[in-house]
Write a structure and sequence with these properties.
Number of strands: 0
Number of helices: 21
Oligomer: single chain
């Protein structure tokens, strides 16, 4: 059930209506029922995987909590945590990566092994990470284990975030799910506004940009001369698609009085790659930092490597080398989280490599800026850092969008050797064909200008949403009604597109 379908709108409306109709103490049950109905509507065959992930982490966390209260030996508690993680993440690994390993074995050793004939279950990467994070939080005594299996099942399966995130933290989210929120027009208004903004980003900006990105990547021989345009369109599409999806998801949560974690904070205004990942898919970055980066950095083998590094490279450089190595490992996992393909390995290592290199060069950068009398606070330097990061970010999209590593490298070659901008006007723009191309480009450009302007205002102290909320109700209603009309007038007329991150 797509988030932009009429059926989904009716589904959410029914869920909200019945939620507030139910007695307060039973409202969490209403959310649980609708969450499982939503999952069953899209992939009934794969309900087993959701139930398995829920059951394994619930039972292991419960056992860990009991063992901790009884003062059991730490080694036994650690084994129980490992059992839960291996079971949960192992399921993810088998389903998502078996065919990748089989294909590579067949290629290397000229074998003919058969892979798994199973489609990737919807939302698998999101709910396994969320439940694994909960298990580790219980193990590290950050939270107590949830004893009610149905309440815990709601935390894992809450339907707005099930397919695309954000990846919820138990301490921040669970209490809100179980609390019976009172009906509030403020919640409804805030949620609807956020949902409308998300639909605008998705159906107008992202989907039109996707028309051009898909055409260019779909016929590289013909459109290879505008590979750079394809890169730019995909960057716009991905931002509008994922940011729009998060607006819709968080807006749905608001309808129930639930505040989910923000997943986007104007990432294209980042001044470094590290900052970009603090702004883009924020909950994935936090998950990787809390459950991968810190455990690796504080592990015994990393501490030994750190001591060796300081002896070998000197105190200053040796202190940074382990951090750079941990960054590379983290972004290797970020890459393969996105998909089982060498292109995603390269994508992840490109991110990690740039961040690790920046860590190693921090001292040099500081010296160069001092010699050139640059404080780093100058407006021109801030603008330079934003543009530099934007270029680096977009160069990675070659591998994210391509179907394979080879295609990504081919696109890099095409972008470096050919430039035929007139080809852009040959791309059919929805049902309007090539005659509509200038108008489609104008729609994309106008949408980007509005998004960038609003983002800059918010970034530098403006409170756009708060100011809109203080307007008279008829004026605010008129603005959002106009946005709905704009979706009908200017939305993409090409075939409907699902959300990109739903495939992960």
């Amino acid at each position: 059930m797509s988030l932009i379908s009429n059926l989904f709108v009716l589904f959410v409306a029914a869920a909200v209506f019945l939620y507030y109709l139910a007695p307060k103490k039973y409202r969490w049950i209403c959310l649980l029922v609708f969450s499982y109905l939503y999952y069953l509507s899209g992939s009934a065959r794969y309900l087993f995987f959701l139930l398995f992930s829920t059951a394994v982490t619930y039972l292991c966390a419960l056992q860990i909590d009991r063992m901790q209260q009884e003062g059991k030996e730490q080694k036994k508690i650690k084994r129980m945590a490992a059992l839960g993680l291996v079971g949960n993440l192992g399921m993810l690994g088998v389903v998502k990566y078996t065919n990748f390993f089989v294909d590579n074995l067949n290629l290397l050793f000229h074998m003919n092994l058969r892979g798994l004939e199973v489609l990737l279950p919807l939302g698998l990467s999101f709910y396994t990470f969320q439940s694994s994070g909960y298990l580790l939080d219980v193990y590290w005594k950050r939270t107590r284990a949830q004893r009610n299996p149905f309440r815990y099942a709601l935390f894992v399966s809450f339907f707005p975030q099930l397919l695309q995130g954000p990846i919820g933290n138990y301490k921040r989210l669970a209490g809100q799910l179980y609390e019976g929120h009172s009906f509030s027009w403020d919640h409804i208004s805030r949620g609807l506004k956020r949902i409308i903004l998300g639909f605008c980003k998705k159906m107008i900006i992202a989907d039109w940009a996707g028309v051009f990105a898909d055409a260019i990547w779909g016929d590289l021989d013909r459109y290879g001369g505008i590979a750079l345009f394809g890169l730019l369109f995909y960057g716009i599409q991905l931002y509008g698609d994922f940011s729009g999806a998060m607006d819709v998801v968080i807006g749905i949560g608001n309808l129930f009085g639930i505040s989910m974690d923000e997943n986007f904070r104007r990432p294209y205004l980042a001044k470094s790659m590290a900052e970009f990942w603090e702004r883009w898919h924020i909950t994935l970055g936090e998950w990787m930092k809390n459950y991968v980066f810190y455990p690796i950095s504080l592990s015994k083998w990393m501490l030994r490597f750190s001591r060796w590094s300081k002896r070998t490279f000197g105190r200053k450089t040796g202190r940074v080398v382990p951090i750079a190595l941990a960054d590379l490992i983290v972004f290797f996992f970020v890459g393969i989280w996105h998909g089982a393909s060498w292109k995603y390995v390269v994508y992840g290592l490109m991110n990690g490599g740039i961040i690790a290199f920046s860590e190693l060069m921090t001292g040099r950068y500081r010296s160069w800026k001092k010699a050139l009398h640059i404080s780093g606070k100058e407006r021109w330097y801030q603008a330079f850092a934003i543009v530099r990061t934007f270029i680096l970010v977009n160069l990675r999209w070659f591998f994210d969008r391509s179907d394979s590593l080879g295609q990504g490298l081919y696109m890099v070659k095409q972008a470096s050797t050919r430039f035929e901008p007139a080809r852009l006007l040959e791309i059919p723009a929805g049902t309007g064909g090539t005659a509509f191309v200038p108008w489609a480009l104008l729609i994309i450009a106008a949408g980007c200008v509005i998004m960038v302007t609003a983002g800059c205002v918010q970034e530098w102290g403006g409170r756009t949403r708060e100011r809109l909320s203080r307007l008279p109700v008829p004026v605010t209603a008129g603005i959002y009604l106009l946005l709905l009309v704009c979706i009908g007038l200017f939305g993409s007329t090409a075939a409907p597109r699902g959300f990109i991150y739903a495939q992960f």
